[in-house]
């Protein structure tokens, strides 16, 4: 028990620390004290001379902070979704991408960019959200009638390849949009706003809540379907609910940030190493570690070449892959 | 977004430059020599800029097919030919005696050479002089040298007039050149950066290391807002629906100088991404925005 508390505390401190660091640094040179004072000044009844000009306060409150919050949210969502999928499939190598979610979002976003971009910026996120959910739904129905998770995964892979091929075909014909689609696929939070945060929040809250509530059932599911049934658990229904919630989480993240790989697979493993294999710990821990990881990655993305940006997908993979390999080498076999 | 130049810049600029250095001299020179006997009568253009050039110099009648992005002038024989992933066979269906491209992709030049079709590569211009030279090259190659000369002369005088009227020493004015709504921009080292440089404007993207991004960096929103440019040029009005209004609505952007004084200039994406005979229109649009900018303290 104390290990759980320790791990959760450490993860929470990590997430908060990188969020504060993220608020302090950026392409605009804001004095750290000014940032701290401006933030404290927002607390009711606290009045401080912030030393920041109205323009600088604007940059902090309207551009930098929503981006920090969005990065935390997206990281948490991708990681918790990945943990949920891994629980359902009893396979530690699964994430949203393997069930047609990324491919569906990619195709839908491409369609939106190619055919609907004249309508303005809000079309692409909506399309990505719907496409991501449709990708998973098609994978689910493609395997209908079969109860084994391997079939579902395989049909997810097949559906994903089909959708990706469709996207490639479309791009090949509309190559003038190549750059825009490519840039979306690498993921970015360059245009983060409070509007995006508030639009994503309801979906995020629902999906996270449902996943957390089902964490114990994922542990039971881990014993195998027959065992779960003898313990009174409806395995099929639990699977459907968790997949739906995880897909909603992934779709929400994709809608506001594009395709950011790796987080969904890696973070749950880090969580398992920190807090043990029980999903009652892995899920909340993934949420916190994912949030902290994504925010650190985004801080690198927006400061490494400042005032120029790096695609965040590149950062998560370049930082994430070696870290992941290191963890794998140091850890015992924990997937089974 | 109609910015194949930038896509190339981001992904394959060094490679492309190498390829061009290797190819551009041989096909063009071989080409002009071969054409002195008889002028090409069946031209296929896979470059929207070259299409505009050919029609401007009076060679439009010899053009039998242009690529799907060549949307100007309206009477150009537009086809479904793709300039970025061209197919030699699809081009040969038009039985061309001259093919003009802006880059050698998909091994096109080699394929067309095999069947004896002359190819001219007119790559994305780096300077205004490059743009003029290309028009003159096309003029010589198609038997419209005098048409090309007068096109260039008109362009030069129109551009000179626009620049003179707005003035060339505006070092007090800064600008941000937007290529798409995720803040991709262009530094002074790029073709469009140099055109804006005719007015002596200062480019906020120049703070970015020029070697990175091939001169087309993605700027951070907070940097743009902090720089508070005097003028914002939108080269993403057609592709992405950017307008002065949508820019003003971006979080934090209301305090940008250009937004405050309403000097957000919407440009036609195509004119702003090509290097052809409509360049004077681009220069005039920039001049108008420069004249509109109130003098800084």
TrEMBL record, chain A:
The chain crosses the membrane at residues 65-85, 92-116, 122-143, 150-171, 240-267, 279-297, 309-328. One of its GO terms (cellular component) is plasma membrane. It is found in: Cell membrane. Keywords: Cell membrane, Membrane, Transmembrane, Transmembrane helix, Transport. It comes from the Bacteria. Its main location: membrane. GO terms for molecular function: transmembrane transporter activity. InterPro entries: ABC_BtuC-like, ABC_transptr_permease_BtuC. GO terms for biological process: siderophore-iron import into cell. The keyword Cytoplasm does not apply. Pfam families: FecCD (PF01032). It is a multi-pass membrane protein. Belongs to the binding-protein-dependent transport system permease family. FecCD subfamily. This is Iron ABC transporter permease.
UniProtKB/TrEMBL annotation, chain B:
Residues 42-294 form the Fe/B12 periplasmic-binding domain. Residues 1-30 form the signal peptide. GO terms for biological process: cellular response to iron ion. It comes from Actinospica acidithermotolerans. Keywords: Signal. Belongs to the bacterial solute-binding protein 8 family. This is ABC transporter substrate-binding protein. PROSITE patterns: FE_B12_PBP (PS50983), PROKAR_LIPOPROTEIN (PS51257). It comes from the Bacteria.
